[in-house]
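Appendix B. Raw example, untouched.
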Amino acid sequence: MVREGEADAMISSGNTGALMTTGLLVVGRMAGIERPALAPMIPTLDDVGVLALDLGANMDATPQHLVQYALMGSIYRNKVHGIANPRVGLLNVGTEPGKGNELTKEAYPLLEALQGINFVGNVEARDVLTGNCDVLVCDGFAGNILLKTLEGTAGAMFSLLKEQFSKSLKTKLGAAILMPELRSLKGKMDYKEHGGAPLLGLSGLVVKGHGSSDGNAVKNAVRQARIALQAGLVSSISKEISGK
């Protein structure tokens, strides 16, 4: 239906690989894009968030793929989130330009020379949550590990808090007093509040929801898709990449 123009977007919480394959074979890749990227929002301490791509659509990538991710991510943050000059960072093991593996070493100068983006250099994983970039570029292997690590850490942290606050009457009373703040903190780190991740680079809008999505997560995915459609995201990326 998306391919034929009968639907404006597709949202799925199913298997990522199956959705990626279907998107490529049915909806199709936009001209000038070699590999679409999965681009979820990662919450940050300043509440602005960082758009990270690719976080699992492709396990391997070339330097040119990372360049395309950077451009698509920058357009997304500008069109959908209204950020005038999004800061683009490259996920790496150090901030120095010469750091990393062959992929990041080759990608760095290409990103530095890319017109139309605000490249701020390498970003270490420990700094992602501090909001030092608006778009984080990486290959799907490293990106998916980053995402799952953050999800697991957040889940473990809240489990520990629950355990500590349940130990005695005193801690239970403290938990009751802090409950609004704790709920706000949980909301910041909850994937359900961020909806889904668009597969950027397809010729139509396809949004991947979390596999454990509940009604609230699906609602936010629909909201996210609506904003992307209103902003003309797909056409903006296509025009910038291919000139069509």
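End of appendix B.
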